[in-house]
Task: inverse folding
């Protein structure tokens, strides 16, 4: 017991330093989350936010795994809407599997960056859309007819109320044949566990994580429990689900990223 005390004390001191670092980074004026997202993407485009975007992995096979599952579980004859597409890196990969892709994001800055990075790809379109707004999504549904929906890393950044609003808003998009494929980070334990898993300590926080803490809404986690609440069984059928990992951008000096525990699911609407 006594011999373990110095280690435990050092750990407690490190935790305190980490909490203080995170608190200092998080101080900012109150701002609606959608505004924070737009500030973030505009800052990335303008170069004032110059660290790597933490969820944009540059290597690894994470996206290949989603494409493989989506190709086997969704109707690949239908268009797919990539909700919360960011700068469209995953939308461009989806264009290799589905005949047309519509990337939708609440941030105009993200959509502009996605458009310029996707020039010359005629089956790929981008639009500004708050996907929790049922009227805006219904208008998109009238334009597109029935489609699939892809979501990576959006539910876990929304409040529980907006998570439920997003799932309800998506329903009309799917028609009878469309399905949703979602993948979300799902780290067990509290926020400190999440941060430590991403390489943060009291001595320092990797740049991409520091940038995210300072600029973005605080993320939560999204797993089977949250999915059951947000996609109630009276309206939704689970086609398949499981545990997976999300790859981050390089977080360390040696260029390596981190694999974050995550949850994926494919769902369809329950009819009749
Ligand atoms: C963690 S990022 C994931 C980006 C992208 N899906 C990817 O995996 O690279 C979350 C994205 O969701 C977008 N977003 C947040 N709230 C949204 C909303 N209500 N409607 C549409 N997009 C939203 C943000 O602007 C951001 O681009």
Result:
């Amino acid at each position: 017991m006594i011999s373990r005390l110095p280690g435990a004390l050092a750990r407690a001191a490190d935790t305190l330093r980490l909490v203080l670092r995170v608190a200092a980074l998080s101080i900012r004026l109150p701002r609606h989350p959608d505004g924070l997202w737009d500030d973030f993407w505009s800052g990335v485009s303008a170069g004032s936010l110059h660290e790597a975007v933490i969820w944009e992995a540059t290597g690894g096979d994470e996206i290949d795994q989603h494409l493989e599952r989506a190709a086997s579980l969704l109707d690949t004859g239908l268009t797919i809407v990539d909700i919360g597409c960011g700068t469209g890196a995953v939308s461009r990969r989806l264009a290799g599997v589905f005949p047309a892709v519509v990337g939708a994001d609440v941030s105009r800055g993200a959509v502009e960056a996605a458009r310029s990075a996707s020039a010359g790809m005629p089956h790929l379109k981008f639009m500004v859309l708050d996907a929790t707004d049922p009227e805006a999504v219904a208008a998109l549904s009238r334009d597109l007819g029935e489609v699939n929906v892809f979501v990576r890393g959006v539910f876990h950044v929304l409040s529980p109320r907006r998570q439920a609003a997003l799932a309800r808003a998506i329903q009309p998009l799917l028609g009878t044949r469309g399905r949703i494929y979602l993948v979300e980070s799902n780290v067990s334990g509290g926020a400190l566990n999440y941060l430590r898993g991403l390489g943060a300590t009291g001595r320092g926080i990797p740049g991409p994580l520091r940038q995210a803490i300072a600029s973005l809404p605080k993320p939560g986690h999204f797993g089977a429990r949250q999915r059951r609440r947000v996609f109630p069984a009276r309206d939704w059928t689970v086609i398949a689900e499981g545990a997976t990992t999300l790859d981050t951008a390089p977080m360390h000096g040696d260029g390596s990223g981190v694999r974050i525990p995550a949850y994926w699911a494919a769902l369809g609407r329950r009819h009749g």
